[in-house]
């Protein structure tokens, strides 16, 4: 199993609920916020027929009153999927975070529809 996917499975559960972005339920999870970087993954509930690509999923992180610059996003091509109780596509993102202010908000866009999350409360 890919180490990023393993980390996503083992990370804490956010203390905020999933939200709907168009036809999809999404949930971003801040995996780490240290050493000048914010790493997060976004889970998107999909059907077996969906074929979400890297270009279908975007994330924006705010920390310290500013929008962070994205350093990396999902690998080009179809998003990795994982099936437990539902089928989830997962995208991994890294953002530059000079000064390390804690992340306060994440906006997730899936195929043009957005959902906004207050992530200032951290993990449960």
Give the averaged pLDDT, no decimals: 89
Count of discrete alpha- or pi-helical segments spanning 4 or more residues:
1
Distance from first to last alpha carbon: 25 Å
**Principal-axes shape call:** globular
Question: Would you mind describing this structure in some detail?
Answer:
The chain is mainly beta and 124 residues long. Helices cover 6% and strands 52% of the residues. The chain contains 1 helix and 10 strands; from the N terminus they run H-E-E-E-E-E-E-E-E-E-E. It has one helix at residues 3-10, and strands spanning 19-21, 24-34, 37-46, 57-63, 66-67, 69-72, 80-83, 87-96, 103-110, 113-118. The strands form 2 sheets. Strands 1, 2, 3, 6, 7 and 8 form a 6-stranded antiparallel β-sheet that branches. A 4-stranded antiparallel β-sheet has the order 5-4-9-10, with no helix packed on it. The longest helix is centred in the N-terminal third of the chain and has 8 residues, at 3-10. The chain is globular, with a radius of gyration of 13 Å. The model is unreliable at 5-10 (pLDDT under 50).
In short:
By secondary structure, this protein is mostly beta strands. Helices cover 6% and strands 52% of the residues.
Topology, please?
Elements: H1 3-10, E1 19-21, E2 24-34, E3 37-46, E4 57-63, E5 66-67, E6 69-72, E7 80-83, E8 87-96, E9 103-110, E10 113-118
Can you tag this structure with a few keywords?
124 residues, mainly beta, four-stranded antiparallel sheet, 10 strands, 6% helix, globular
């Amino acid at each position: 199993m890919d180490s990023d996917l393993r980390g996503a499975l083992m990370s804490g559960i956010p203390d905020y609920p999933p939200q709907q972005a168009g036809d999809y339920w999404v949930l971003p999870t801040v995996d780490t916020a240290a050493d000048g970087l914010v790493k997060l993954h976004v889970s998107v509930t999909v059907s077996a027929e969906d074929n979400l690509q890297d270009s279908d999923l975007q994330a924006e992180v705010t920390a310290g009153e500013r929008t962070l610059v994205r350093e990396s996003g999902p690998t080009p091509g179809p998003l990795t999927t994982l099936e437990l109780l539902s089928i989830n596509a997962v995208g991994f993102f890294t953002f530059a975070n000079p000064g390390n202010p804690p992340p306060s908000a994440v906006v997730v866009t899936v195929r043009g529809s957005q959902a906004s999350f207050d992530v200032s409360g951290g993990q449960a």
